[in-house]
Specification:
The chain is of the alpha+beta class and 161 residues long. Helices cover 23% and strands 25% of the residues. The chain has five helices and seven strands; from the N terminus they run H-H-E-E-E-E-H-E-E-E-H-H.
Length: 161
Amino acid sequence: MKCTECGEEHSIEDMELTFFLPDDAAYLSDEERKCNVQESGDRCIIEGKRFFIRALLPLSVLDRENPYNVGLWVEVQQPAFERIYELWSEPDQENEPPFQASIANTIPTLPNTVGLSGFLHLTGPNTRPKIILSYDEHPLYIEQQVGITTHRAYEYSSLFD
């Protein structure tokens, strides 16, 4: 697959589905986003009231050693956001108890994923936090629990087109 960033060919196996903003920020016009959103590569605040962290949702791949990670955004409460920001560069941040969070992106091909709840785990200063979904009958929860096939990982990656 040809990379839209660098123009190089990358193996679809090495690519993972990634969202660059929470849906509610992405749907705003450029002007609205400029006025109402504070954003960095890993944190986003909408209207000073809603707080988002960029995270990974790991999915085990049945015939592969490494998981497939969906890069998405989760919404957290302000006190959690502030604590995460405080710990962002701390080497022992993974010792912090997980934070309640909910998915803030719609993943195509699945029933609505916005609002699915889980726990955000800090993993270290050089890695993105990961979200582990709370029990739900949603297909994404089931995929996280039982794993996915290589073909399913390919289906997620092909959403880049």
